[in-house]
Design brief:
The C terminus is likely disordered. It is flat and about 45 Å long. It has a 3-stranded antiparallel β-sheet. The chain is built from 3 helices and 3 strands. By secondary structure, the chain is an alpha+beta fold.
Length: about 120
């Protein structure tokens, strides 16, 4: 079981809180992908889990109907799907293709390029 640590407190008088996802900004550990980090540093001692982390895929939703397709797919907001486990990437692409086909949407998932030194 993990230990939960309190990091601090915030106040939000306006009632609106914005949390910036570094992945959407392309800022993973500064300018590096999570795949460039040793999975053991993320607590992944299992070799299979470490491989899943190291081979994770980031997808961009592209095409004329990308915005509508991403929104209606309902997985994550925005036109990016980050950190998809390698073993689930083909399944997710298939689900997205079927979603677009059923909705008459012209969009597709495109894997983002990876560094040759990381994968």
């Amino acid at each position: 079981m993990e230990t939960i640590s309190r990091l601090g407190e915030i106040s939000c008088p306006s009632g609106t809180l914005v949390v910036v996802d570094g992945g959407h900004l392309g800022l993973w550990s500064r300018e590096r992908s999570p795949a460039e980090i040793d999975p053991a540093l993320l607590g992944a001692d299992d070799p299979e889990l470490a491989e899943e982390i190291a081979n994770s895929v980031d997808f961009a939703v592209v095409g004329p109907d990308a915005s509508a397709a991403a929104r209606s797919f309902g997985r994550r907001s925005g036109a990016m799907l980050h950190d998809i486990p390698a073993s689930r990437a083909a399944e997710l692409k298939g689900m997205f293709e079927e979603h677009c086909r059923a909705g008459g949407l012209d969009a597709r998932l495109e894997a983002l390029p990876t560094s040759p030194t990381t994968r």
